[in-house]
């Protein structure tokens, strides 16, 4: 089950980075101010980077560290 959660976290990283870049660079939403779009987009991007950092170590732990524990 931990492997499924680790892979799901990679998809969530892609989602957060995608939404953040969409809000900053591509969104033409008329009811949101540009400053609000940039703040929300950069928050999504920074949180996506944080999740990527955590997902990397989780994947290393789940997929590659178990081989060493069995020895």
Structural features, described:
The protein is mainly alpha-helical. The protein has one domain. It has three helices and no strands. The mean pLDDT is 89.
Helix and strand topology:
Elements: H1 2-26, H2 34-64, H3 66-70
Give the mean pLDDT.
89
> Beta-sheet strand percentage?
under 5%
> Gap between N and C termini, in Å?
22 Å
**How would you sum up the major sheet?**
none
Q: How many domains make up the 3D coordinates?
A: 1
Over all CA atoms, what is the radius of gyration? 16 Å
Helix count?
3
Question: What would the principal axes of the Cα set say about the shape?
Answer: elongated
Q: What is the number of strand segments? A: 0
Order of helices and strands: HHH
Helix proportion range: over 70%
The helix-and-strand class reads: mainly alpha
Output the keywords:
71 residues, mainly alpha, 3 helices, 0% strand
Short description:
By secondary structure, the protein is mostly helical.
